[in-house]
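Appendix B. Raw example, untouched.
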Amino acid sequence: MLLLSGIALLASAAQFSFLAYRVNRTGSQDWAAPADVVVVLGALVNSSGEAGPDLGSRTQHGVALVQQGLAPYLICTGGYAGDRLSAAAVACRLATAQGVPADRVFLAEGSMTTWEDARSAAALMRANGWQSAILVSHPLHLERARLLFESEGVTVLPSPTSTDLGAIPWRDRAWLTAREVAGILWIGAVELGAPYEWVIRLSRWVYPQSHLP
């Protein structure tokens, strides 16, 4: 029994280490290439109604990709549908202010988690006949987001913001990595039959102010 417990513990540690490696590997490279659309994942909006630092950097990066000609359209995700202060609405206004034509910027609102972002954006893509997306987010968020978008049938090209992973204090980076690994494991738990509502309750403790799994 002790041997089996030891083997199980080692297997769990190996799986965790592999996922941690994938989280950091995906976020350390820019995989951007020509695609149908750029998708900017939502992040915190300040109480003033302006984009927070993370949402601002994501939007600016997405705009740069469109202006480089890598995709003709931009989708902004996140927040309550119709709310002028939703992450999607704020990002869209910022994108148009930075020169992206308004008819090339799309809202994918009504989503409060990365999982819902993927569903909302994928539905919009299907409605327009788009299949591939350059996915923009914080480097350590991209592996989990990639898995969720691919589960919706989207061909994903992760493109991290300019956040320097090497500049993040190691304790913070370890915590952020562990949080993302937990999110990926929760995805697997739901696919194995765990109620989505249970996972959301648990994840709210880990993701108190940002998008959830």
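End of appendix B.
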